[in-house]
Specification:
Elements: H1 22-33, H2 38-48, H3 57-72, H4 76-86, H5 98-105, H6 112-122, H7 128-144, H8 148-158, H9 169-181, H10 185-197, H11 204-216, H12 220-234, H13 240-252
Helix pairs in contact: 1-2, 1-4, 2-4, 3-4, 4-6, 5-7, 6-7, 7-8, 7-9, 8-9, 9-10, 9-11, 10-13, 11-12, 12-13
Length: 256
């Protein structure tokens, strides 16, 4: 892929007045000076962050094409700002090339940019509807790259009291399956506990996954006891408290 090149040459003071749409202003600024003028990006982002705007199909296509180029040219902060501002137009999530962005973010040696994306979207009221699928993409990508510790950090971010996207049953199941598959049983139990504490009953396939994972660790007695307790919850019983106490005991006695 060709390296990203500047296609416009406007400074913040000389951007033509015909860029009345804030997204257009942001796009032109990013295109012209994304690598060497962060102040211009911030000015455009501030202009865009005031209200919902309309995005033309042409602009949406241009942004969709630009995001992969920013990712391939290692300009992730710029790509994140562009995605954040684009949500003001309420576009379909897939139109913003999220899988390409997430794949690039989860290839970074640390989680700085991943957390930057989540933090920006958390404070963008127009992006809240996309936070849950984005966290799912992050978790899935980290598991795919065999980075379960990073997936667990995304779960912890989602579980904060001020999080706008607390984990739902699907996210809990994705995490438990992923941790069991990667041999991180302690983390799987912690997520399972959070799931049960939120009055969510694990499905049969999830119970089976945890049961088999415990057997692989030669924790036969605990596997049988937990499976029986989870079956009661799954059958509509009121044994959530019993399951929580059991998992707490298992976690407390865990020896790595």
């Amino acid at each position: 892929m060709m390296p990203f090149r500047r296609v416009l040459c406007f400074s913040p003071r000389t951007i033509p007045s015909f860029f009345s749409n804030p997204i257009s202003l942001l796009f032109s600024t990013l295109s012209s000076s994304s690598s060497d003028s962060p102040a211009a990006e911030e000015e455009a982002a501030a202009a865009a962050a005031t209200k919902h705007i309309d995005l033309t199909p042409e602009e949406l296509t241009r942004i969709s094409l630009l995001i992969p180029r920013l990712c391939s040219s290692d300009q992730l902060p710029t790509a994140i700002r562009l995605v954040d501002a684009s949500f003001l137009a309420n576009p379909p999530l897939e139109s913003l090339s999220p899988r390409i962005l997430i794949d690039r973010l989860t290839s970074e040696p640390d989680m700085t940019q991943s957390m930057a994306l989540l933090t920006r979207l958390k404070h963008n009221k127009f992006a809240l509807y996309s936070l849950r699928p984005i966290t799912t993409l992050l978790i899935s990508s980290y598991f795919k790259k065999r980075r379960p510790k990073e997936a667990f950090k995304v779960f912890n971010w989602m579980s904060r009291p001020d999080s706008p996207c607390a984990p739902q049953a699907a996210a809990h199941a994705l995490l438990v399956h992923g941790f069991c598959r990667n041999g991180f049983l302690l983390e799987a139990l912690k997520v399972l506990r959070a799931m049960v504490a939120a009055d969510m009953a694990p499905a049969a396939d999830l119970r089976s996954r945890v049961y088999r994972a415990l057997l692989r660790e030669a924790r036969i007695g605990e596997a049988k006891e937990l499976d029986a307790a989870l079956r009661c919850v799954g059958d509509g019983g009121d044994g959530f408290g019993k399951v929580i106490d059991l998992i707490d005991r298992m976690i407390g006695n865990w020896v790595e």
